[in-house]
Amino acid sequence: MAENEKELEIVEEESDFADEIKPAVAPEAAPENEPEEPEEKVDMYASEEEAAPAETSAEESNSGYYDDEHLVNIEKNRQDFYKHYSKFNKIKWIITAFSVLTIICGWLIPNAIDALKNISMIIAIACCGVGLVTLLVFNSIFKKKMGEHMNRYFREYYANTNAYVFPEEITDIQGSVDNKLDEAEFRECNLYKDVSKVGSRACYTFKKGEKVFKIADAAAQVIVGKAMGTAYVGKFLITSNNYEGSDILIYFKGNKRALPPTNLAGRKVFSDSKNIVIYGDKGTEKVITEKVREALGKFHTNKTFVDMAIAIRAGKTFYAMGYEDDLMVINLEKPFDPNPTKQFKEDLAKVLALAEVLK
Fold first, then answer.
1. For site-directed labelling of 92, which of 132, 148, 156, 255 has its Cα 20 to 30 A away?
2. By CB neighbour count within 10 A (0-12 exposed, 13-18 middle, 19+ buried), where does 275 fall?
3. Quick check: 200 and 191 in contact, CB under 8 A?
4. Among candidates 40, 71, 110, 61, which has minimal Cα distance to 251?
5. Please, what is the Cα angle at 319 between 315 and 322, to 5 degrees?
6. Could you tell me which residues come within 8 angstroms of residue 58 by beta carbon, excluding any fewer than 6 positions away?
7. Residue 34 phi/psi, 5° resolution?
């Protein structure tokens, strides 16, 4: 993305990832149900101090350094991709200029020479055809070649990212950048209301001990008037649990860029503080044990790790880790900044530790 993927305009197929989703037709109105119980009023945003803690974060430590071979590889691969892109882009402009010049000359020159005036239209049409065919053929080759380079870069990017962020005890990693999260699995978290579109990429499954996890880059959109609005974007993780009971929602508040859960009607506030709110019915205290509270206390939102919503439902736990574009948008033109990836590595380790005590 060119800084982002969209600006380079070299992807043939339309991606279903959130920042490339086109406006969609509004879904049919849902059938009328009983009025929902209103949600309890809670400030869903942390103060600036809470959203950007004073302690040293991944963004501040080792700033600008590729202190791991996998981070080095990501930047090398980006440079290789951009070298190919720059080369083909220069050729594209040359071919475009040649095609336009051919068309112009095919029209002007025959009309300026008396001997050619009788066939000027034929020459003009021929030159126009040559110019357009040359341009179309090169554009087709350009898209195909750059698509291949981009796909390779994306595969290597996620391979190196996973190798860096996943702890050593992670096993049985399966998936690819092309694998997508099932939209039904996202909607199953029950965190966001009236989701119209779910985009995803890089969906992987892995094991930590006997526990199986699924993680993906995901984004959800809702209809806002005649356009689409983002309801969530970040790293979405699912795992199983032994919980039986009504839903529990844990939300780590973030700055004004945060996207809090929207499906809150009828939920009861179990506890609320400056940086975290927990929704749950009677019995929630049996789940939110001292060990769980200790694990929850290790999370801190900031400018990169914007917020996080955890949905504990019977049989499954969902972690919607909200991240800023500095992690979710893959750099193509600008040098790779390792700090957001370092932040994600820290956060993932904390999520996996929390999953252990949540059972």
1. 156
2. buried
3. no
4. 40
5. 160
6. 304, 339, 340, 342, 343, 345, 346
7. -60, 145
pLDDT score of 40: 66
Structure tokens at 197: 């579109």
Q: What would the mean pLDDT of 220-225 be, rounded to a whole number?
A: 87
Cα separation of the two ends of the chain: 39
Structure tokens at 144: 């195909």
**pLDDT-derived band at 285, boundaries 50, 70, 90:** very high
Residues paired with 237 in a beta bridge:
215, 319
**Is this model's pTM higher than 0.85 or not?**
no
36: left (phi over 0), alpha (psi -120 to 50) or beta: beta
CB 3 within 8 A of CB 333: yes
Beta strands in the chain (DSSP E): 170-176, 197-208, 211-224, 227-240, 248-252, 269-272, 276-279, 305-313, 316-323
Burial class (CB in 10 A: 0-12, 13-18, 19+), 337: middle
Amino acid at residue number 314: A
In angstroms, rounded to a whole number, what is the distance separating the alpha carbons of residues 255 and 252?
A: 10
Q: Report the alpha-carbon distance of residue 205 to residue 247 in Å, rounded.
A: 24
Distance CA 125, CA 107 (A): 8
Q: What angle do CA 94, 125, 88 make, to 5 degrees?
A: 15
| H helix runs in 37-119, sequence order | 48-51, 69-112
Q: 8 is written with which tokens? A: 């380079």
Backbone dihedral angles phi then psi of residue 304, each to the nearest 5 degrees: -95, -55
Q: Which residues of 63-75 are buried (b: 16+ CB within 10 A; e: fewer)?
A: eeebebebbebbb
